[in-house]
Each structure stands twice: as structure tokens, then as C-alpha cells.
Specification:
The structure is a homodimer. Chain A is of the alpha/beta class. Chain A has helices at about 10-20, 85-95, 105-120, 150-160, 165-180, 230-240, 260-280, 310-315; strands at about 25-30, 35-40, 45-55, 65, 70-75, 100-105, 125-130, 180-185, 205-210, 220-225, 250-255, 280-290, 300-305, 320, 325. In chain A, the strands form three sheets. Chain A has a six-stranded mixed sheet, sandwiched between helices. In chain A, helix 2 (about 85-95) packs across helix 3. The radius of gyration of chain A is 19 Å and the shape is globular. Chain A starts with 10 loop residues before the first helix and ends with a strand. The relative contact order of chain A is 0.14. The mean pLDDT of chain A is about 95. At the A-B interface, helix 1, helix 6, helix 7, strand 12 and strand 15 of A face helix 1, helix 6, helix 7, strand 11 and strand 14 of B.
Chain lengths: ~325, ~325
């Protein structure tokens, strides 16, 4: 294992310390490093909290700030945070508007956020994201997995909360965005969890994992590595097919898993764009980069969110976080 | 070689097409894909142009936009662009204020930008960056190499040009920022150039390349992999030592080479911060991420720029590019 670290047990703590120091104008660290929260809170605003296993950075800590999340709870690598972390985050950032938990659909996360909701003193609601069309159920989830589309839910609901919508409105909007969102990922290599010290899975030099999950868990099938346009076509067909006959203006997010260079992500964007347009999607907004990662895994995912005028305005609204910043 | 691509010869063209489509609100592609330029030009402003081999993305195309570059010329992977590309870019974006070329100190780049300057019809000046303290001369450079500090020069001079400074003022400022900037990089793995199809260099499982260049070219020495705090200490001592007795407020840029996840970059930031502060530097501004990369190489570099009030204001000034965006 070749990684920049001191002790395996200190990786998350040291990394969080660096993150909050580098972005101290935006975030600060909660007590006992249980969560990352916004430096400035807005009284009465619905508080948006997400979290999940570490190793997907910048998700979720990098999305804490104006126009997006109020707090993020990082678990150990690829391991759900505890209900205790989530409840502490809620107590810290709920300023009277209630708390909306945004939870990726993995069993551990869903259960722990449920327990956190029971511990809560204020009003609590939740949105569960399940945008991954690869599988109907997986090793770690009942039903579809929540993957890169979670970013879109956090951005759009974050903007709505900033504009003063109440808890029920934010929850309903989150469900609507999740329903309008589909993703699919492809991995070329595995990643290595620091505590494991060796790759999560083995994959041949001429193979790829089609429909991979963001922890490297298996997807639809192990297939031969193909040219980019062939991969893009399969991804676009899987996503487009899952939308049924729904077409129209959309956001295309091409998300790197951590180990794929920008040059290849933009090449994939170009190939995906062509295939989605051929299917009748009209790409109105784009985002390309490493946003929902699996440590240093090589690979990428495509996410489409169907946009109407309201969702487009909320996507475009100002955001000021470590990883997404525009309009301010 | 496991990469997302169709034909090796089309990688740059397809990637540029994707880049300019995804960011069509900011950039457009020049004739024959010779350069990427700002969508909107400002009459009479000094035009900032940079360029170099591809494979370092987002450098330089990702830094084209308001408050930074006017055009960027991408060569083949790790190969200088041609004088023809640079001259075409100059003709396209010079609106009467003259052209400032910002050139990383590599022999091919310096020679080709020199030839481009001779072809120019308008007024032309140049700044050569040579911030890498690793070596006094290298395989590909006479004198020190220009590496991640180039980003800082482009950002600060970009802000000054936006504010109306003339060509000579921009050139002098660029030289001043370059002189106030020092970098050093460490690689854990090699990268693979698509046309080569195999890793640029071999490195053992327990080794790292200390002082590596951004093309994977050798640095100071091949040493055993060490804990992050030891690596950070060596990097901070090399950079701090090179500054002599100069200390004070600074920018710390922790730059990933492409294959190192955010978790490790922030962990390195935390360790570097501690060592630089111990040496008497006061970190006033921070930037952490993949900005000046070597395709998918695992590793990172540290850059320190000493800041005064003027440089701090120019660093903070609004910027709107694909890869750096704040204040607007």
C-alpha cells in the first residue's frame, strides 16, 4: 500500500484537521471531530445534514457551506457514521427550522440515521437517495444504492433551504430530485482501504467492472475493457432506458472515482454527451470532476438529472463550499 | 494500459472537445483546436497566454477565464505546443493591450514561445516560471523547472491584468510572484502516457521519488517511503531552506498529481502546515487539490508563495474559470 499517512488509525482525524484548517473561512470541526459544520449558521433555516463512510471525498464535507449542507458526519472509511455523530451534528446546526437528513441508500447508513432521528429533540425528516441504476439490490443495500446523484440532491435542496423553504418542502423537493436522477459507474481498478492494506477486489488488465458501486462492490457484470465510446454507449443506454420515455433538458454529471485524470473524464464527457443527445436528452448543465470518489479507484460514473425551470434555478443558485463554488 | 480512450491519437482532441462543451459558458475552442480561449474578451486588456504539454490538467485550459488566462495552448501529452499554436492564440485574444506569455521553464516550451514571440504582430512579453527547488537543472530544463507555482503566477497576474495594469507592469509582477514562490514534489507511482502505453518509470513498492518533476522525470533522490510527517518535514525543509531567511505570511498550495485521493492530500496539508509553521511561515491562504497534475501519477507537491498585502488582494480577487472560481 503506497499512501501518504502516519498511522492507519489516524488517517481520518488528520485528514479532517487538514480539511477544516484549509477551509476555515467556510467550515469548522465539531466536538471530538464528530462532524464538520458550517462556520456561520442562519437562524430558522432548515438544517441539511448528510454523512456516510469516509473515502468519498469531497462528498460530504466538501459540500458543507452556504447553499448546500450545514453539517456532514464522516464515518470510518466506507463505514457508516454513528447515530451519536448524527445527533451531535443536529444539535449543533438546528437553529429552529428542523433537520433534513440526506442519506445514501446503504443499510448501515439508513439504520444509523433512523436511530439518530429517534434521538433528536427538534423536528427531523429525511431523504434517501437511490440513483444507481446498476442493481436492484446489492451486498450492502436493500434496493438501489445512493451514489453520485446525492450531490445533485444536496445542491438543489441546499439552495431551496437557503431561500427559506420549510422542512416538508425541502423533504418533498429532495424526493423529487432523487426521482429525476439516475447514475451508473464503471471501474477500471480497485481502491485500497488504508486499514485493509490491499486492494478491495482483483481485476484483470483487460477487464472493467460495469455498474460498480462507490465502495468497489460488484455491479452488473465484469466485462472486457472497451473503447470509450462503447463504454459511454452502454452507460447512456442503461441510464436512458431506466428513464423510460422521459426525456428533456438535463444536468450531466461526469464524476471521477479518484484515480482517473481530468483528461479522461472530459473525453468520457464528450462521448457520453454524444450518446445522451442521440437518445433525446438536451444537456443544459454540466459538471465534470472528482466529486463522489472511492479513494484512488480509476473509473467514472455518469449521472443525469432531468431539469425543469425550478430545478435549474436552484442548481444555478449561489453555492460556497470547499468543492463547489459559484455565484458568490 | 487501462484508460478511457478511443484512439491514442484522438485523446487530446476528444478531451478538448469535452472540456469546451462542458464549460461553454466560459471558454471556446480556437481554430483547428490549436488553443482554448475565453468566450468574452475585454478590449485593451493585457492578454495572458500560457500553454505546455497536455497531461497536467486542469493546468492550463482550466485556468482560462475572467481573472486569469485569456488563452491556453495544449501540446501533445508532455510535449510543448508549437509556435504556430501560440501565435494563433495571440492573434485571437490580443485586443490591443499586448500579450504576456507565461511559460514553464522547460527547454521546448521556452524555445517555442520565443519563436511565437518573433511571429507576433503586436507587443509581446514573457514570464518564465522556475519554482521547483528540487534540482538546479534537469533532463528537460536549463535551470530550475516551472511547476505548480505557475498556477499562482497565472492567478495573481491574471487579476492584475483584469484590473487594467499594462504589459510591463504585468510582466514585472509575474517575475515578482515567481521569485516569491517555491515548490517541491514527491511521487509514489509513475503515470502512463497514452502513446507510450506503459509507465514512464519503474518504482518499488516501498520507494518514493523525492523532488520529482511534473512529467515523472527524476528528482533529487529515490528514497524509502516514509510516514507522511517525515515526507512533509523533508519537503518543508527543502522549500524553507531555499527561501533563506525570508519568512512571513504565505499561500500554501498542496497540489495532487492526479492519482492521490483528497483524503491523503488534506492529511499532507495538515502535516505540511505544521512543519511550515514551525519554520516561521504564517499560512494566510490555502489551496488543496489536483491542479497541476501528471496524468494519474500518485503523489503531491507543496508550493509556498510569500504574500504581501498587494499579492493577497490579487489572489483574493474574483476568478471565474473551469478549475478555480470564487468571488463571482
Amino acid at each position: 500500500m503506497k499512501k501518504f499517512l502516519n498511522n492507519v488509525d489516524d488517517v481520518i482525524r488528520e485528514s479532517l484537521a487538514g480539511f477544516t484548517a484549509a477551509h476555515r473561512d467556510i467550515v469548522r470541526l465539531g466536538e471530538e471531530s464528530k462532524f464538520v459544520r458550517r462556520r456561520e449558521l442562519k437562524k430558522g433555516k432548515v438544517a441539511l445534514i448528510s454523512g456516510g463512510g469516509s473515502g468519498h471525498e469531497p462528498l460530504h464535507g466538501g459540500f458543507v457551506g452556504h447553499g448546500m449542507l450545514d453539517a456532514a458526519c464522516p464515518g470510518a472509511v466506507f463505514t457508516s457514521p454513528t447515530p451519536d455523530q448524527m445527533a451531535a451534528a443536529a444539535q449543533s446546526v438546528d437553529t429552529g427550522g428542523g433537520v433534513l437528513y440526506i442519506v445514501k441508500n446503504y443499510e448501515g447508513d439508513v439504520m444509523n440515521f433512523e436511530m439518530a432521528a429517534e434521538l433528536a429533540e427538534g423536528e427531523v425528516a429525511r431523504v434517501i437517495t437511490d440513483d444507481d441504476v446498476a442493481v436492484e439490490k446489492s451486498t450492502w443495500s436493500t434496493g438501489r444504492r445512493g451514489v453520485a446523484g446525492t450531490l445533485v440532491v444536496e445542491k438543489i435542496v441546499g439552495a431551496a433551504a437557503e431561500q427559506g423553504r420549510n422542512l416538508e418542502q425541502c423533504r418533498a423537493l429532495g424526493e423529487r430530485v432523487n426521482k429525476a436522477t439516475r447514475s451508473l459507474g464503471v471501474a477500471l481498478t480497485s481502491c485500497t482501504i488504508p486499514a485493509a492494506g490491499k486492494p478491495t477486489f482483483q481485476i484483470g488488465d483487460a477487464e472493467m467492472e460495469f455498474g460498480v458501486g462507490i465502495h468497489g462492490e460488484p455491479g452488473r457484470r465484469r466485462v472486457p475493457l472497451a473503447p470509450a465510446r462503447g463504454i459511454a454507449q452502454q452507460m447512456a443506454e442503461a441510464i436512458g432506458g431506466d428513464f423510460g420515455t422521459s426525456r428533456g433538458a438535463c444536468l450531466l454529471l461526469v464524476n471521477g472515482f479518484g484515480g482517473t485524470p481530468a483528461m479522461e473524464l472530459y473525453l468520457m464527457y464528450e462521448n457520453l454527451r454524444a450518446h445522451f443527445e442521440k437518445q433525446g436528452f438536451s444537456i443544459a448543465r454540466s459538471l465534470v470532476g472528482n466529486y463522489v470518489t472511492s479513494l484512488e479507484m480509476a473509473g467514472c460514473s455518469a449521472t443525469i438529472t432531468l431539469l425543469d425551470d425550478e430545478l435549474t434555478r436552484l442548481w444555478d443558485a449561489p453555492v460556497h463550499t470547499a468543492a463547489l463554488r459559484w455565484g458568490m
